[in-house]
Design goal:
Radius of gyration: 22 Å
Structural class: alpha/beta
Number of helices: 15
Largest sheet: 9 strands, mixed
Distance between the termini: 38 Å
Shape: globular
Helix content: 25-40%
Strand order of the largest sheet: 15-14-13-7-12-11-8-16-17
CATH class of the largest domain: Alpha Beta
CATH architecture of the largest domain: 2-Layer Sandwich
Length: about 450
């Protein structure tokens, strides 16, 4: 009796594949990695479609079929449904509520690109529902959320990719940087500085009518119930078409209720690479010190005293005491990227360049053959989505696994807590708790609004 499309795909995804994490590239750009016919292609859904949600969906069209899209903004949802239909020749189903996707047995994996405060709830419920997960960075809103996700990955055995795409993409510059460090081209690392930019302050943002297309109640979800706020001026460029100043849309990153500012936005990229390079992907700092900082508004006991303007840090310099006496600096000032300094040299890397004497020396003394593949753990994937797809096949965790991501993100979360409280924090990376500071430890978790608690 011939197999159905569903059983063929399930058999492929669940079957044991050759060991290893290397990607197997097929000659045709229109087929997924390892999938021999269109009927074998996995079925995906994207939850959260504005900006990065659409970006990761586009990267994945060549590897998977999108059966459903989800967004609480009907205008964004409609636009992306039309674009997806044009791209893949088939119209995906449209939903406002992500739970409709989790109930569907034909969907193999979800891509999550909602605001940060929704990540943990959706990701855990997706895994419990039997879906593999690709979730945008930063993975969590708090440190304890990361522990919940780790527990769910272990319990369910699902494949989970975090969207720290610098691990795979950007012309392999970051892989080259890590290889330079690992092969001793700057000697023992003494200092690593991550320049990640600052956030703008805002004027007072008044309460405004909720846009007709936006389900504000569901957008807030686990976050506290507050009125929608916005000013008339519109944002242009990347993320444009929405109010420049608001407590939603692109600006959610400027509010601790929904995100962690630049520390968890760009910090989730550069601190990740820095930790990977210095071998700190399974441990953490001993101490996090806010050397200087300015918050978006006045704070008392770690909480903003007003609710009508941005409240994350606008400028900052943070020092983290890392293992092996490595000093990590995370700053809003400086050229966006990472500066590695060792006993025998220094070099700089970002998404557009890698430069410095150790890089120039590669002309006469190149890295050993396979050095970048050694860093990556196998053949380097075409892009981050490709790595996720291949991991679905092998049932091994992808290059951006939840454990290494959470370890580096703890630094970013601790930096925000330190600034909110205005003091240095001592951290126990084994117990994953702040030492001798009950008030600071109370910021490791955050209570979800009733009706939006995480379902495990």
């Amino acid at each position: 009796m011939p197999e159905t499309r569903q059983t063929t795909r399930r058999r492929f995804l669940q079957g044991l594949a050759a060991a290893g994490t290397a990607c197997v590239m097929l000659p045709s750009a229109n087929r997924a990695l390892g999938y021999q016919s269109p009927n074998d292609r996995p079925v995906f859904a994207t939850i959260g479609l504005r900006n990065q949600g659409w970006a990761i969906t586009q990267k994945t069209f060549r590897y998977a079929d999108f059966a459903a899209l989800v967004d609480v903004d009907s205008k964004v949802l409609g636009t992306n449904v039309e674009q997806t239909q044009k791209k893949q020749g088939k119209k995906p189903d449209a939903y406002k509520d992500y739970r409709a996707v989790l109930d569907r047995q034909d969907i193999d994996a979800v891509m999550i690109a909602t605001p940060d405060h929704w990540h943990t709830k959706i990701a855990i419920e997706a895994m419990v529902a039997g879906k593999d997960v690709y979730c945008e960075k930063p993975l969590t809103l708090t440190i304890d959320e990361g522990k919940l996700i780790e527990k769910a990955v272990k319990k369910t055995g699902r494949v989970f990719q975090v969207g720290t795409m610098q691990r795979t993409e950007c012309d392999r510059r970051f892989l080259q940087a890590i290889a330079l460090v690992r092969h001793g081209r700057i000697g023992a690392v003494k200092k690593v500085a991550c320049a990640i930019g600052g956030m703008p302050a805002s004027p007072v943002i008044p309460v405004a009518p909720v846009p007709e297309e936006l389900d504000w109640e569901f957008w807030l979800g686990p976050a506290p119930k507050v009125p929608y706020r916005a000013l008339p001026e519109m944002r242009t460029g990347y993320g444009g078409g929405v109010p420049l100043y608001s407590n939603a849309h692109y600006s959610f990153r400027n509010w601790h209720e929904y995100s962690g500012g630049k520390l968890t936005d760009w910090g989730a990229h550069h601190v990740d690479i820095a930790c990977w390079a210095i071998g700190a992907s399974d441990t953490g700092p001993a101490k996090v010190t806010p050397l200087e900082f300015t918050l978006g508004c006045e704070y008392k006991d770690g909480y903003p005293v007003v609710d009508d303007r941005y409240n994350v840090a606008t400028r900052f310099t943070i020092r983290a005491a890392m293992p092996n006496d490595v000093e990590m600096i995370i700053a809003s000032e400086g050229d966006n990227g990472i500066l590695f300094e060792g006993a025998e040299g220094r070099f700089f890397v970002n998404r557009s360049r890698i430069s410095g004497a150790p890089v120039e020396a590669l002309k006469d003394n190149p890295l050993p053959e396979g050095a970048l593949e050694e860093v990556y753990g196998g053949k380097i994937s075409e892009n981050h989505s490709a790595n996720f797809i291949e991991s679905m096949k092998t049932r091994k965790q992808p290059i951006s696994d939840v454990w290494s991501h959470n370890r580096m993100l703890e630094i970013c979360h601790l930096a925000n807590i330190a600034m909110r409280l205005g003091r240095e924090l001592n951290w126990d990376p084994a117990k994953r708790e702040i030492v001798g500071d009950a008030q600071a430890n109370s910021f490791l978790a955050r209570e979800s609004r009733k009706g939006y608690q995480v379902n495990t």
